[in-house]
């Protein structure tokens, strides 16, 4: 469908965080727009969904504010929303997602402590084009929302990252620029930071194997770097062949006196202060002296923090290197009632779940596989503690458990201020 310019008024916020406008009964989703605002919108269809780009505002919300950076739509489209309104909108989205659950309690919400500079991980692209066909010096970049392969340069980094992370990412880009490398030869740069030590590690993904090596000794705070060739067959940054490595490949975060080591490419929480509050809430709802099974356990982060109240904790994770680090984390912290097991998702069965009284879940954004939900129903653990980075798939999964389980607590945690995303914690008790 060709683009069409229309004037529309938003009626609310959709579950994806975009404003929703109704155009002849068809929903139109517009990022960067607030409820009850009117704007001139460039409308088009993408993957069967109507999306819009704001061309000009006619009426604006009293809750709107100026964004901190020009590229905000690429990283944090809610920079234009005053923070109390952000929190209220996220709580409203959660309430709407669980409205189907007749006997569910009211949704609680824990706001963020820090609105910017909170992220522990950043993923950059690169560009050497100015957007109108001209060449520019190599720069860090983000992809422009709904604009295909187009990218926006980040001359100062991103406001969601600490000054330390931005300084290190920009320094690495400067070295690549000095080597006369082009955006065509580069794929992505990941930078991760420990908020406990302020040290960073980085992974550079490249599309050519003859990338020159460079020293990081003159970049303070950067403890290690890996350079990986990433195959042209995948548009994503994937590890195909290690070309070079220097320094450390792990970081350490200390949470509630538990030291947690995690790898450069492993999962770890992205907002430490708010995660601490979520972990405390899970601890409050964990039955005293329970046998706890944790699926998607990673390096043992949540299970090790809850071990003080459990009789035993058994972590199950598909990634072997994460399992090894979980076992190491247990030993380093002298936590003796924790065990970790490397087990593919398809090997998780009813018997494994049934051997434990409490089930802890923190899956990826896709949520739970239908086979796993079937096993949970058959095993019937007394308590399920489900933390999710995607409340939509979580609400879908909990709906499948509705006949067997009652919700005793729902709470949103604002892990991602300035964005539409939040983490959702649901506690279920067997009926």
Q: Would you tell me which CATH topology of the largest domain applies?
A: Rossmann fold
Sequence of strands across the biggest β-sheet: 7-22-23-21-20-17-18-19
Radius of gyration: 23 Å
> Which class do the helix and strand fractions yield?
alpha/beta
Q: What portion of residues belong to β-strands?
A: 25-35%
The overall pLDDT, averaged over residues, is 94
Q: What is the CATH top level name of the largest domain?
A: Alpha Beta
- Count of alpha/pi helices: 9
**Number of spatially distinct domains:** 3
According to DSSP, the number of beta strands is 23
Distance between the termini: 50 Å
Q: What does the main sheet amount to?
A: 8 strands, mixed
Residue windows where pLDDT falls under 50 for at least 5 positions: none
Helix content: 10-25%
What name goes with the CATH superfamily of the largest domain? Answer: Vaccinia Virus protein VP39
Anisotropy-based shape = globular
CATH architecture of the largest domain: 3-Layer(aba) Sandwich
Characterise this structure.
Helices cover 22% and strands 34% of the residues. It has 431 residues and is α/β, with parallel strands linked by helices. An eight-stranded mixed β-sheet has the order 7-22-23-21-20-17-18-19, with helices on both faces. The protein has three domains: 4-64, Beta Barrel (OB fold (Dihydrolipoamide Acetyltransferase, E2P)), CATH 2.40.50; 86-114 and 254-430, Vaccinia Virus protein VP39 (Rossmann fold, 3-Layer(aba) Sandwich); 121-252, OB fold (Dihydrolipoamide Acetyltransferase, E2P) (Beta Barrel).
């Amino acid at each position: 469908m060709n683009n069409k310019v229309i004037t529309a008024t938003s009626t609310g916020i959709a579950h994806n965080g975009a404003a929703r406008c109704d155009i002849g009964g068809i929903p139109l989703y517009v990022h960067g727009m607030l409820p009850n605002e009117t704007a001139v919108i460039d409308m088009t269809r993408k993957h069967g969904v109507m999306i819009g780009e704001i061309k000009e505002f006619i009426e604006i919300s009293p809750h709107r504010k100026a964004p901190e950076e020009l590229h905000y739509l690429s990283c944090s489209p809610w920079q234009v929303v005053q923070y109390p309104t952000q929190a209220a909108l996220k709580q409203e989205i959660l309430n709407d997602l669980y409205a189907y659950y007749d006997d569910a309690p009211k949704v609680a919400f824990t706001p963020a402590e820090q609105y910017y500079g909170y992220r522990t991980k950043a993923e950059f692209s690169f560009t050497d084009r100015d957007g109108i066909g001209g060449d520019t010096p190599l720069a860090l970049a983000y992809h422009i929302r709904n604009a295909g392969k187009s990218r926006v340069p980040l001359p100062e980094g991103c406001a969601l990252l600490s000054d330390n992370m931005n300084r290190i990412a920009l320094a690495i880009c400067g070295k690549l620029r000095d080597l006369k490398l082009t955006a065509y030869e580069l794929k992505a740069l990941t930078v991760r930071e420990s908020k406990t030590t302020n040290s960073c590690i980085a992974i550079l993904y490249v599309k050519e194997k003859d990338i020159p090596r460079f020293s990081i000794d003159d970049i303070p705070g950067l403890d290690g770097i890996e350079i990986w060739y990433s195959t042209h067959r995948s548009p994503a940054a994937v590890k195909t062949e290690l070309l070079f490595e220097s320094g450390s490949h792990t970081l350490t975060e200390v949470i509630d006196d538990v030291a947690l080591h995690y790898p450069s490419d492993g999962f770890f929480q992205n907002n430490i202060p708010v995660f601490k509050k979520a972990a405390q809430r899970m601890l409050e709802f964990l039955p005293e002296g329970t046998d706890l099974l944790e699926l998607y356990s990673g390096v043992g982060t949540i299970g090790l923090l809850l071990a003080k109240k459990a009789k035993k904790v058994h972590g199950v994770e598909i990634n072997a290197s994460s399992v090894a680090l979980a076992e190491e984390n247990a030993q380093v912290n002298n936590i003796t009632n924790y065990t970790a097991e490397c087990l593919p998702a398809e090997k998780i069965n009813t018997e494994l779940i049934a051997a434990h009284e409490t089930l802890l879940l923190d899956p990826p954004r896709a949520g739970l596989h239908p086979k796993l939900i079937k096993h949970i129903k058959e095993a019937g653990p007394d308590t399920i503690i489900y933390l999710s980075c995607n409340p939509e798939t979580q609400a879908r999964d909990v709906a499948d458990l509705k006949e067997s389980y009652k919700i005793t607590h729902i709470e949103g945690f604002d892990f991602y201020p300035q964005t539409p995303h939040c983490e959702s914690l649901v506690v279920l008790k067997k009926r």
